[in-house]
TrEMBL record:
Organism (species): Candidatus Borkfalkia excrementavium
Record keyword Hydrolase present: yes
InterPro entries in alphabetical order: Histidinol_P_phosphatase_HisJ, PHP_dom, Pol/histidinol_Pase-like
Alphabetized SUPFAM superfamilies for the sequence: PHP domain-like
Name assigned to this protein: Histidinol-phosphatase
Amino acid sequence: MITEDLHTHTFFSQDGREDMRKMIETAIGRGLVWYGTSEHFDYDYMRRNILLRGKPMLLIDAGAYFKRARRLQKEFEGKIHYLVGCELAYDDSGLVKRLYMQTEEKYHPDYVINSVHTCLNADCYFPEFFDGKSKKFAYSAYLYRILESLDAPYAYDIVAHIGYCSRNATYTDPKLRYEEFSDVLDKILKKIVEKNKILEVNTSAKTAGSPFIPDTDILSRYYELGGRKVIFASDAHDAGRIADKRELVAEKLKEIGFTHVTIPVKGKHIELPL
């Protein structure tokens, strides 16, 4: 049974829709033992002047987030293991990398999610990203961005939502399949294993053609390559989706051969049986 969910967002993220206290209380009500908020640090948007639905991205108030989260962490001690994390959206600029390292040095998050949202100077979540691009070109650009992000100089624990580009893709067949991108996916998966990082299984798949991303073909290949560190993630932006599809993910992981999920806490890895 999966009893953790560390990839969630509250009002402190621009696209979050729920108060932090309600999210924690909901996690307790759903029987989670470990719960974490991982608010967006979207400095990639700032660096590339990318608009979010036609408007500039509002950057997180990091000080306010960590202050409130640490206070709630103490308040809920003994009721749930509430971890205070962040999601750092990769960009190749030196400025963004320095800002992320400064964030870690100043606030000491309990864990860090490394993600890719932007490539080719746009967010590949939105349908307009795919205009005039073949699936091969668009997905390859995204995947090579992930490969690049794995060598980021800041400390991170989790590699997030491989397949993000497929969530709202406009192709007739949007699914990200291992067989179609095996060369670059092998490079990504091998590097995750080599760097001792944790691969996230994310149930915010939307119209990706799979109930979670990455799908079982990619997860099976990761296992074949020696990968054993996985973590469940709902990527909930409201309380309603906390722990969504956790039973399905647990079942599929066990079918592949995984025996546990891995929780990162201050650089240490804690294994919880599936």
